[in-house]
Amino acid sequence: MLRYDSTSSSAGSSSGSLSSSSSSSKPPQQDIDGLLAGAGYKVRSSELRQVAQRLERLETAMGNSPADFSQLASDAILYNPSDLVCWVDSLLTEFAEPPPTCSSDFIVDPVNNQTVVNSAWTTAEPHTPQVHQNITYDEQQSLDNQLTVVTAMEEDSGIRLVHMLMTCAECVQSGDLSLATSLIGDMQGLLTHVNTVCGIGKVAGHFIDALSRRIFQGMGGGSVNGGSAFENEILHHHFYEACPYLKFAHFTANQAILEAFDGHDCVHVVDFNLMHGLQWPALIQALALRPGGPPLLRLTGIGPPSPDGRDSLREIGLRLAELARSVNVRFAFRGVAASRLEDVKPWMLQVNPKEAVAVNSIMQLHRLLGSEQTRNSPIDTVLSWIRGLNPKIMTVVEQEANHNQPGFLDRFTEALYYYSTMFDSLEACRVQPEKALAEIYIQREIGNVVSCEGSARVERHEPLAKWRRRLSGAGFRALHLGSNAFKQASMLLTLFSAEGYSVEENEGCLSLGWHSRPLIAASAWQAVPAWDNHMSSS
Amino acid sequence: MVQNHRREDHETGGENKEKRPKFFINDHVDILIEILERLDGRSLCVAASVCRLWCTIARNDSLWENLCFRHVSPPPSSVRSVVLALGGYKRLYTGCVRPVRSRLGRVRRASWARDEVQLSLSLFCVDYYERLGGSNSNGRLVEKSSPSSLMFLCKPVNV
Description:
heterodimer; A: alpha/beta; 20 helices; 9 strands; 51% helix; B: mainly alpha; 7 helices; F-box domain-containing protein (chain B); F-box-like_dom_sf (chain B); F-box_dom (chain B); SNE/GID2 (chain B); DELLA_N_sf (chain A)
C-alpha cells in the first residue's frame, strides 16, 4: 500500500544535506529491538513504549475519520515504515495529532533513516524518505485541508450539534426565527467538522435540513411528502430489504391472520396499503399448506392511484394471482385506488357477509389522526366502518413513538431520539443500494414529522399505549399474538446479522426494537360483538 | 463423506472372469442413491462433480428434499407440490434452508427445527414472488440487481 511517488525526487537533495549534517551522532546499533528487527522494523528498545502509545492514537484517529483515510492512501507522501518512530509520527501529524516529540529525536532519526535506507534497500531505487520537517509551507497547507478533527473534538462536536438542534427547535417553537436561522448556519458549519458518514452527524444533517425547510419554506412542506407513488414504492421496497422492521410486521401479522382464519373456507383480506404486495406471498403459501387445504382467498388492496396510465394495483394483483395459481390456492384480487385512506368507503371493498374478514394496516392508521380531537375525525370514521365489517381480526402495526404531540419541541426531541436509534440499527446493513435508499425513506419521514403541519403532516405516530386506548374506545378488544408469532419473530431477527435487535412481548403485543428501545409494535384486534355506540352509517 | 470406489482394470476383465466379480458403484445406482441421500449439502455439491452419472443423480430434487427435512418429521404431501412450484428443493435448500440453519445454529433450540423449515419456506415464497416481478414487469421496477428478500442471508452457491 505504500508508494514512493514522484515528490520523493525532490527529497533527494534534502536528505543528502541531512546525512551530511547529522552523520556525527550515530545511535548504538545493539539497542535495536531484536524481535521487531526480525520483522523488518528498526525501533530502539527504549522507544518501544512511545511507539506503542502513538500507534494506539493513530489507530483511534484513523478509525474516526474513515473518509480521509482513503484520501491518505492515494494522496499522501508516505514514509519508510521500517523506521516505526518516524512513520507513526508522520501519520499522526497528517491526522492532526501532533506527536509529542523532542528535538533530539529529529537529530538522531535521520541518521537512523539513512542507515536503514542503506541497509534495507539494496536495489538502485532512488527512494529516500522525506522527513516531514522538510515539507514546504504550501504542502503543509494542503495537508491541513485534508485534516479531520481529532476524536475528542469530534465527540464534543456531536454533543454540541444535539444541543444546538434543541435550541433551534425551541426558537422555532417560540417564533424566534432570526435566532433559529443563525443557529442553522452555525450547525451547518459544525457539520463539516463531524463525520457525516455515520452516527450522530448523519442524523443531525437530516434534522438540520428539515428544520431549515420548516423555517424557510413554511409548513406546507409539500415537497417532502410529494414523492411520486412510484418513488415511494421503490423506497419502501428498499426499506423492506435493508432492515427487519417491515419483515417483522408482515410475518407477525400473517401469523395472526393465519390463526384467525383457521377453519374458514372463504377468507377476505383487506390491505390498507398494498405497495408491492410483499406481505402476501408468505400468507398464500401458508394457506396452501394448512391442514385441510387452502381456502378461497380474496385480497382487496388499497393504494394510491398511479399516474400515466399504469395500473400498479392490478399489476401486483396479477403477480399475486400467478403465485396463488402455482401453489393451487383459489385467489381473487380487487384493487381500490384512493389517495387517502379516509376516502375509502366500505362498499368499495365488497365484503361478503359469509366470509371471514381480516383487516391489515401496516403503518397506515396514524395518517388518519389529526391534531384536533374532533368528534368525527377521519380515524373515528374509518374505525367505525371497519367495525361494521365485523372482521375476524384486525392487525395493526405502528411506529412506537410519540410524534403527534402538539408542542413542537417535544415532538422534535422525541423524533431525534427515535430516528437516531433507527439509523443506528441501519448501520448494520451491508447491502447497497438498499441501505442508501432506506435512509432516504426514513429521511422523508423525518422531514414530514419536523417540517410539516396541518393536513400536510401525515406521520403522526403514536405509541402502543395510546392506540390501545383508542381502539378499545372504538369497540375493539385485543387478541393475544401467541407464542408462534413470538418464536417466528425471534427466528427472523436472529437471521439478521446485527446483534442489537430485540423482540418484546407486551400484554399480547409484540414490539421490535434496537437495544431495548422499541421502534415498531404489532398488535391484533377483534371487534367486540353487540356494541351499539359507534354503529353509525358511513 | 464420499465413499471411495475403485475402478477395476478392464483390460484384464476377460482374463479374470473366473475370479470373484469386481464391484463398481456406478453399476448399482440404487445403492449410490442411498449413499448420496445421506450426505450433507456441501458434500452433495462436491459429489455432483465426480462424474456425469453422479451429476445427474445429484441434480435430482428428491435428494435435496431429504436434506431439507432431514432432522424434521416428514412433512405433509402437499408441501412437495408447493415447493416444486416455487422452484424446487435444491433452490430451497441452497437459497434458504442452509443459510437459515447456519445463521440460527448459534442459538439453535431443538424445537426450532420444524419452524426453521417453515420460515425458510416463507422466505422462499417471497423470493419467488420477487423473481416473478422480474419477468413480468416492464423492467422499470425490477432489474437484475433488484432487491431480493433473501439478500440478507448468505449468497447461495449455485452448483
